[in-house]
Description:
Shape of chain B: globular
Oligomer: heterodimer
Structural class of chain A: mainly alpha
Distance between the termini of chain B: 24 Å
Number of strands of chain A: 4
Amino acid sequence: xxxxxxxxxxxxxxxxxxxxxxxxxxxxxxxxxxxxxxxxxxxxxxxxxxxxxxxxxxxxxxxxxxxxxxxxxxxxxxxxxxxxxxxxxxxxxxxxxxxxxxxxxxxxxxxxxxxxxxxxxxxxxxxxxxxxxxxxxxxxxxxxxxxxxxxxxxxxxxxxxxxxxxxxxxxxxxxxxxxxxxxxxxxxxxxxxxxxxxxxxxxxxxxxxxxxxxxxxxxxxxxxxxxxxxxxxxxxxxxxxxxxxxxxxxxxxxxxxxxxxxxxxxxxxxxxxxxxxxxxxxxxxxxxxxxxxxxxxxxxxxxxxxxxxxxxxxxxxxxxxxxxxxxxxxxxxxxxxxxxxxxxxxxxxxxxxxxxxxxxxxxxxxxxxxxxxxxxxxxxxxxxxxxxxxxxxxxxxxxxxxxxxxxxxxxxxxxxxxxxxxxxxxxxxxxxxxxxxxxxxxxxxxxxxxxxxxxxxxxxxxxxxxxxxxxxxxxxxxxxxxxxxxxxxxxxxxxx
Amino acid sequence: xxxxxxxxxxxxxxxxxxxxxxxxxxxxxxxxxxxxxxxxxxxxxxxxxxxxxxxxxxxxxxxxxxxxxxxxxxxxxxxxxxxxxxxxxxxxxxxxxxxxxxxxxxxxxxxxxxxxxxxxxxxxxxxxxxxxxxxxxxxxxxxxxxxxxxxxxxxxxxxxxxxxxxxxxxxxxxxxxxxxxxxxxxxxxxxxxxxxxxxxxxxxxxxxxxxxxxxxxxxxxxxxxxxxxxxxxxxxxxxxxxxxxxxxxxxxxxxxxxxxxxxxxxxxxxxxxxxxxxxxxxxxxxxxxxxxxxxxxxxxxxxxxxxxxxxxxxxxxxxxxxxxxxxxxxxxxxxxxxxxxxxxxxxxxxxxxxxxxxxxxxxxxxxxxxxxxxxxxxxxxxxxxxxxxxxxxxxxxxxxxxxxxxxxxxxxxxxxxxxxxxxxxxxxxxxxxxxxxxxxxxxxxxxxxxxxxxxxxxxxxxxxxxxxxxxxxxxxxxxxxxxxxxxxxxxxxxx
Lengths: 496, 495
């Protein structure tokens, strides 16, 4: 059992860096271990950044996509980008519906600026985010015909979850209907700012003289422990300041308690972040402990919650227990492979400079994760849903192209720069396998075992055993590229 | 207990012999009998209308008959700009009315006597209905219909709304993993994701977007090295496949069956193309309703079925899924306008299915070698995760509950089954516009539990014993027969 003061082992440091970034570099791991740095110290360093104002804006969604991709391949703020990916999935918005790459770029910056801050501030911004307002029909939500699309996802996906940790429903259809009224009339002006058009707003409050008396008072969460049987009347709370209705709705949502009296938002967001960073199937007690220890249910500061997660034992469980491993997201597979091999992509088209010369957006799309185009409002399906015949072939094809890249500068794969093997005639294949798995940081708890290593050694020696003749330029080039390809195609490398 | 196909193959040692699925398989009467335990020489195609198809504008009240169905429809669907009302008439110009897709065979709601019609975009379905090859099962749903896409899709995929089973697997997936081994490939999803209804971890389902792009990406710089790479790749995947770590086993097995399929499946494209050029072109022909992602997806299914029927070695997929997205029509749904969104969606599916069945029909023409008549060997099941509200919103519809399902094929007993959902505003009041769900025998507005439809397919198409079907989809354990699924009927007369 460890805590924030436990020094990280090399394996734990690699795990922390893989989960919070894009691949663990050997020199970074070495430094952490040499200095005896603790879980807490490294977590603090990872979380100590000022969010960048970067926004991948372009009139073409493909170029906006590539700007973000390139940023991820280059940035020193890996955790920031991991968080933006998490929020992009959480607040999944599809440019095919929005039809505005510029707005998608703005939303991307909003996610970045709020990535580790107060979740209340994040929600304040998301409620008014032009891409989101377009995607979930807020801009078409009008008093005569309230549109429920945003109200539903606000609760189901963004804040409360369909059910709480005990499997109990968190909201009702009536709550959706009433909250949809709060968002009637919200529009986006010429400058891309959200405002309330009161003429399109349902100004009813349930009394006979007010509009839409049949819709009743704007009461939500009746019977919730936080509000009692009468629920919360957000219409009365906002009064004639109609623009404040959505803020009153958020006050109610952030005060919402689940069936066991826990803060629902804090536990839902903690559950989501834990499944992303730490454990695909966390126990109820783990989620509760992370919220309690971080005070996330009162502060709602994401960084506080993350630090608590990053120093917890369960976070490191996968280092010792392979059943706790996660499947790498396609974007992680692409970006970490390039970063670990010291490579970049070519031109604004961000293509791989070898093999089929595929551009990364196509490769990612084939792997099932084209950024800015999540498959639905639920974002992407994670874990084993990433893996099927089609997506695996896309991963294999991408790394085949990567190891075939030879042309220029940073877009070329140069094994001779990564590995220090002499050009001698008698290189021990074991050292080659160790060097390659070490560089690629294959997860310790599930590194290739005896059979896998023997297969790689057989490959290197063409089944003959003994040493390899690296004085032969062709053999050295062929086999070094080949063994990198095999490791990146192995099931172990898909996991982390 | 009957042998599963998997047990049979293991016991007879055929599984180890290789080439099990090659030509002549069905010439062996002993094996043929064993295969008949399952889907045998038949095919199953699941068509998912992704996003929640508006059932009320799919099978539409045309008149009142003895009740108020059309009148209630007129209250729910407006006739102004943005109105979704489908006119009882031929329509004019670019706005089509219900007469355009009115079956010539009887098509009346059994309960109310109201005459119904298909949405004008569903002319292809009307033709199949008139030919007796299409069954409409009205009002399919489940208790306490959930209005979340995600939740309801999973309920339809897993057929386990109360989550009584220990793990979340697809309803057809549970059948597949009982009947097939890890390296068998009994099914293909056309797309980048495995269809939820096929999900499980006991056998392999391929996800293929296009066969001609499905192949192993070998390193072409050192072609002489590829055999060595393949051997090492197989060993690495094999190690994972037997690691005891379930996620690693899944990746390892998927990788191994993918590598095998990548050798056998791509050739299906070329064979189909050169041997069936006329039909190949039809799927691309907009004038007959082709040239859509739906028609092209079904063409991939046709290519594979053509290969299986011809006995191409190592190709034996029997289960397929295709999906059409875009049904989440909160806004701009469109009524009878042929440029409208819902119209296009309907036409895409109906026209593509028609081309597909024509293709299968033609595959058997002129064959003297006893080749099966394929349209009799295929069962197409069309479903959506929910229907939409009865009352339209501005110019679209919000999420609702039960809707119609379609079962299509020449072995299907075409007809109209089940009752139209109750859309009487007095009855639905207080339910926020949701269709009232009822299985109460005393309630004249009966609906069908979608699990009875699946169960009928499993029993009569996959040849599963009724008890096994029931074990695969347990009854709701809540003693409220008016609302919950307390008695199953796996003998719905459509199959």
